[in-house]
């Protein structure tokens, strides 16, 4: 199990560092429903990642394969995932904003002020499970765990570790909001502005590093 967790840690970090979802939860924390919407968004995020895990682990666990076939399958997953992340990195880098210029945010963010707790929950699910980068990483992590040869219980624990680490990015603003009280808005505002400016660059560098690592691991596993 420790080996499986070690392999998926970079993928979990890649999900955790997701500027758009972090900006979204920060925006929710400056609305009148912040005390409900912030935690509900985080809960939705966890549900979205858990749903991917349940589906992929069920499929991967149902496929009986030899040890060599399993190793080869994991290597192919890593290779394809790495290539996909390099493609995302290139697209993000080309679309990055100029120095000092804040990147345009998705139009749906303008409606965050009117979000109910249910909508906040749904937004968390969608941004965790449907966002292309996060979907790629979560599917990759679940596949690696599912083909690791460990028991079903250990698979669940390993993927739970992935989910916890992957949730840190969106959970930190919520923790800051409840822990810092009146001082939280200034800090959260600075975080939102910084991530808004550097969103594309953060994503490009992150996807590049993880993509190269995965491709290297895949080549070593063949």
Describe this structure in words.
It is a single chain. With 222 residues, this protein is an all-alpha fold. It is 80% helix and 0% strand. The chain has helices at 2-16, 19-28, 34-62, 67-94, 117-129, 132-146, 152-180, 184-221. α3 (34-62) runs parallel beside α5, α3 packs across α6 (132-146) and α4 (67-94) crosses α8 (184-221). The longest helix has 38 residues, at 184-221. The radius of gyration is 18 Å and the shape is globular. The two termini are 21 Å apart.
Radius of gyration: 18 Å
Q: How confident is the prediction overall: mean pLDDT? A: 85
List segments where confidence is low: pLDDT < 50 over at least 5 consecutive residues: none
Task: Name the overall outline.
Answer: globular
Percent helix range: over 70%
Strand share of the residues?
Answer: under 5%
What pattern of helices and strands is seen along the backbone? HHHHHHHH
What does the largest sheet look like? Answer: none
Helix/strand/pairing class, anyone? Answer: mainly alpha
DSSP helical segment count: 8
Beginning-to-end CA distance, first to last residue: 21 Å
The beta-strand count equals 0
Task: Outline the secondary-structure elements.
Layout: H1 2-16, H2 19-28, H3 34-62, H4 67-94, H5 117-129, H6 132-146, H7 152-180, H8 184-221
Helix pairs in contact: 1-6, 1-7, 2-7, 2-8, 3-5, 3-6, 3-7, 4-6, 4-8, 6-7, 7-8
Descriptive terms for the model:
about 80% helix; about 0% strand; about 220 residues; 8 helices; mainly alpha
Question: Summed up, what is this model?
Answer:
By secondary structure, the protein is mainly alpha-helical. It has helices at residues 2-16, 19-28, 34-62, 67-94, 117-129, 132-146, 152-180, 184-221. Helix content is 80%, strand content 0%.
